[in-house]
């Protein structure tokens, strides 16, 4: 059921109605061409598969600023002298946008929702006030919170990290933020809670005790988990890998690094991973690779859906419209049975040159259509007998009795030596990569 449009005191998008589904024949930029929430793909509707979420930060705080110049957009909801008045206006604008766009979920950092105060107590009060307002908006619209998190990277106090900071007082401030953000997430029935270690790393090994910092990081996550469970948070804790930026060496570099860290510290039963496409490419991987590593470990939680620029070594957070990436990602997600409590959150921002209000809608519509198309195509690819037979054939030797004994740990190194000596040189087996890639194109484009 689609939520009703929230009617605040002010309409921030007065010329835009609820975004309709008009199908592939439409040329209306403010309509969906592929995303039809009720359309069934496999065993679920598109809405159930994709669980789209709009992010609070880029969408309602983003001004188009970059390292070389100030912002190019000045949204009316941010034009208030009192930061709390701006926060209230921003909340109304956000819920009007969410409901007109038709996404079922949203997500936020604590400082997106409410401004920091001059003390820990004032910051907590500000967040509580906005949490109460957000709860009323959720009840009025049917919107849900996909996840909450704390911004522990923007404030100058976190220049040397938050949970891994060498100063206990800084770690304590980070703990205060996480405590309050967890409380807000619970109050808003959030399905997940994310840790994005934006500055959890180091710049110089000569002044850094890496072992101590990583132990502190694990201790911090353990404390957060325990507190969350104690106040009734039954959702999934997520860690979002990110390489190189902004710290020179990030502790949460990629999926396998984070998975190993969580397992080493016995946190893998409560934590899963939130994979961002742009972070994957910055780590030298594909989006699909990072997702697959999580699936293999049973630890895929949710997705930050965006893309980077292949010619730019920076986190550009562009809206995801690359169909190859979207299709490959959805193949992995569908093969593991879906995202569970996770979703596809658009951690993406308008380009600096996009300055009209309707650009916010157009960007999200394009991304949602891209993943809707990818969902349909991925379902077709995953059910294609030609592709599945080729993959199965590559590993057929492990389906023999000897192969099953190897996988079960019943063979020794000497047993394998004797098998090699008896059978002689193996016959080369083609990977058929080109045939498979051609098959994919045939299925995608109907050739």
From TrEMBL:
Catalytic activity line of the entry: alpha-D-xylose = alpha-D-xylulofuranose
Gene Ontology BP annotations: D-xylose metabolic process
Compartments (UniProt record): Cytoplasm
Active site location: 109, 112
Binding site for Mg(2+) 2: 276, 279, 315, 317
EC numbers for this chain: 5.3.1.5
GO cellular component: a single term: cytoplasm
Keywords: Carbohydrate metabolism, Cytoplasm, Isomerase, Magnesium, Metal-binding, Xylose metabolism
Listed PROSITE patterns: XYLOSE_ISOMERASE
CC cofactor note: Binds 2 magnesium ions per subunit.
GO molecular function, one term: xylose isomerase activity
Cofactors demanded by this protein: Mg(2+)
Domain of life: Bacteria
Binding of Mg(2+) 1, residues: 240, 276, 304, 347
InterPro entries on file: Xyl_isomerase-like_sf, Xylose_isom_bac, Xylose_isomerase
Subunit structure: Homotetramer.
Family: Belongs to the xylose isomerase family.
PANTHER family: PTHR48408, XYLOSE ISOMERASE
Protein name (Swiss-Prot/TrEMBL): Xylose isomerase
Species annotation: Acanthopleuribacter pedis
């Amino acid at each position: 059921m689609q939520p009703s449009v929230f009617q605040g005191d002010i309409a921030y998008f007065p010329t835009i109605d609820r975004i309709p589904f008009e199908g592939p024949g439409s040329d209306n930029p403010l309509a969906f061409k592929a995303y039809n929430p009720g359309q069934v793909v496999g065993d679920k509707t598109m809405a159930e598969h994709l669980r789209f979420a709009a992010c609070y930060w880029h969408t309602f705080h983003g001004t188009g600023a970059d390292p070389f110049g100030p912002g190019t957009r000045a949204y009316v909801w941010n034009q208030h002298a009192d930061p709390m008045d701006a926060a209230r206006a921003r909340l109304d604008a956000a819920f009007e946008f969410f409901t007109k766009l038709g996404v079922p979920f949203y997500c936020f950092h604590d400082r997106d929702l409410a401004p920091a105060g001059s003390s820990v107590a004032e910051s907590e009060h500000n967040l509580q006030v906005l949490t109460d307002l957000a709860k009323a908006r959720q009840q009025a619209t049917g919107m849900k919170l996909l996840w909450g998190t704390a911004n522990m990277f923007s404030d100058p106090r976190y220049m040397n990290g938050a949970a891994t900071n060498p100063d206990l007082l800084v770690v304590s401030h980070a703990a205060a933020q996480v405590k309050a953000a967890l409380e807000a997430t619970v109050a808003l029935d959030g399905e997940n809670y994310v840790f994005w270690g934006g500055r959890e790393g180091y710049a110089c090994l000569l002044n850094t005790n890496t072992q101590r910092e990583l132990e502190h990081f694990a201790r911090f996550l353990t404390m957060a988990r325990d507190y969350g469970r104690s106040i009734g948070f039954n959702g999934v804790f997520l860690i979002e890998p990110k390489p190189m930026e902004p710290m020179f060496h990030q502790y949460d570099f990629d999926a396998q690094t984070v998975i190993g860290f969580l397992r080493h510290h016995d946190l893998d039963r409560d934590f899963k991973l939130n994979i961002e496409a742009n972070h994957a490419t910055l780590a030298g991987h594909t989006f699909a690779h990072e997702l697959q590593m999580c699936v293999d470990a049973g630890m895929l939680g949710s997705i930050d859906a965006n893309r980077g620029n292949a010619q730019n070594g920076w986190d550009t957070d562009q809206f995801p419209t690359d169909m190859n990436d979207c299709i490959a990602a959805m193949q992995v997600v569908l093969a593991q049975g879906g995202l569970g409590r996770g979703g596809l959150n658009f951690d993406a921002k308008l380009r600096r040159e996009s300055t009209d209000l309707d650009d916010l809608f157009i960007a999200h519509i394009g991304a949602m259509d891209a993943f809707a198309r990818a969902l349909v195509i991925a379902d077709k690819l995953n059910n294609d007998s030609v592709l599945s037979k080729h993959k199965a054939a590559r590993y057929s030797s492990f389906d023999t009795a000897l192969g099953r004994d190897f996988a079960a740990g019943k063979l020794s190194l000497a047993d394998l030596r004797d098998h090699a000596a008896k059978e002689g040189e193996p016959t080369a087996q083609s990977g058929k990569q080109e045939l498979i890639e051609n098959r994919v194109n045939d299925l995608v484009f109907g050739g």
